Amino acid sequence: MKTFQLEIITPEKIAFANQVRMVTVPAADGQLGILAGHVPLFTNLAEGEVKVIGENEEFFLAIGSGYLEVAKNKTVILVTSAYNADEINEQEVIEAKKRAEEALTAGGEDKNLLEAQGAFRRATLALKVLHRKRSGRPLNQ
């Protein structure tokens, strides 16, 4: 299968840069898969999970919202944040999720509720990515 260059960039770092066979992203209207030779595209990305399939590996990243640009032989993902499972501290995420749940239960001002909802989504996503790594799924499953 053909490959293409994928770059995942945040304001702080280049989270990923390598040749891949496929990437699946959380587009604003649902999941979007990109293969080599995809038509040029520019679209919004939602906060969610990115699945990257390399030559002999498959892995996941938790991303913040951003943009995807597909060009001839290169795909660039520009997002507010990107973390792979190795960068996630499970205990910190569990505590953050618990605090968010408590804030959601307590209610309060609209701004505080929106912040708690965002924190809850990010913590849930981080745990999902962490547990996918632990499951050790082979590439072909």
Describe what you observe in this structure:
There is one protein chain. The protein has 141 residues and is α+β, with helices and mostly antiparallel strands. The chain folds into two domains: 82 residues, ATP Synthase, domain 1 (Sandwich), CATH 2.60.15.10; 48 residues. The protein is 30% helix and 40% strand. The chain is built from two helices and ten strands, in the order ββββββββββαα. The strands form two sheets. Strands 2-1-9-8-5 form a five-stranded mixed β-sheet, with no helix packed on it. A five-stranded antiparallel β-sheet has the order 4-3-6-7-10, covered by helices on one side. Helix 1 packs antiparallel against helix 2. The protein is elongated, with a radius of gyration of 16 Å. It starts with a strand and ends in a 6-residue tail after the last helix. The C terminus is likely disordered.
Strand ordering within the main sheet: 2-1-9-8-5
The number of helical runs is 2
Report how far the terminal alpha carbons are from each other: 17 Å
Topology as H/E string?
A: EEEEEEEEEEHH
Uncertain spans? 137-141
Compute the gyration radius: what is it? 16 Å
- Tally the beta strands: 10
Counting structural domains, the number is 2
Q: Any idea of the CATH class of the largest domain?
A: Mainly Beta
Helical/strand content category: alpha+beta
CATH architecture descriptor of the largest domain: Sandwich
| Average pLDDT metric | 83
- Share of residues in strands: 35-45%
Specify the biggest β-sheet: 5 strands, mixed
Query: Which fold does the CATH topology of the largest domain refer to?
Result: ATP Synthase, domain 1
Percentage of residues assigned to helices: 25-40%
The CATH superfamily title of the largest domain: F0F1 ATP synthase delta/epsilon subunit, N-terminal
Shape: elongated
